Amino acid sequence: VLNLQRYRAAGHLTLAAVAKCLQAATWLVARGNKGIGTEAFMGILKEDALKEDSIKENSVKEDTYDVKSLIEKALQAREAAYTPYSHYRVGAALLARDGSIYTGCNIENAAYSPTNCAERTAFFKAVSEGQRHFMAIAIVGGPENGPIAQYAYPCGVCRQVMMEFCEPGTFQIIVAKSVEEYETHMLQELLPNGFGKGDVCPNEY
After folding, report:
1. In angstroms, rounded to a whole number, what is the distance separating the alpha carbons of residues 196 and 15?
2. Which one of 14, 77, 105, 161 has the minimum C-beta count within 10 Å?
């Protein structure tokens, strides 16, 4: 533990890495293994630190991305929506911190409950391809025949999915009628006092 404190103080590792190592040590001791070598610990810590540094170095800076371009991609994604029942089409464009964009549309089902929202389609597509760090999402929605006259806010289930993968205080949700008319909200505004990973695993997040 003292070694971990020194490494943390020297700036060689993140708090998340410390939590991981302490958890691993507790697990080993509980199973009769009295210790693990410093080199093994440092290997875990350095790997974690390198991942964090890579994410930061390759991140798109907040307020520097093209909001209108993201909305345009959401509008394009909306065209693929499968809505034979509600005839309400939604498109979403999810921006990852490395600049990648993942789009999604709503996909309805005759059984109703298997229906998937555009936002979750985009998130699940991104996560299935290994992406874990997100910056913003643009959402557009409205009747399939007619102009988009109102903002399509994400439903509660979609907000909960965002809570799983995004930082509530920085993740931006852009609801738009067009590339010129839109609102921007932080996730914590739309999901105050949200339940997330830190509530389930307080020692890890």
Report:
1. 18
2. 14
Cα→Cα distances 189→3, 71, 134, Å: 40, 20, 17
Looking at the annotation, which residues are catalytic? 119
Q: Which two tokens stand for residue 162?
A: 């965002």
Nearest partner of 64 among 103, 93, 92, 95, judged by Cα: 95
d(Cα 36, Cα 126) in Å, to the nearest integer? 36
**Does residue 191 register a pLDDT over 80?**
yes
pLDDT in tens, 129-177: 999 999 999 999 999 988 999 999 999 999 999 999 999 999 999 999 9
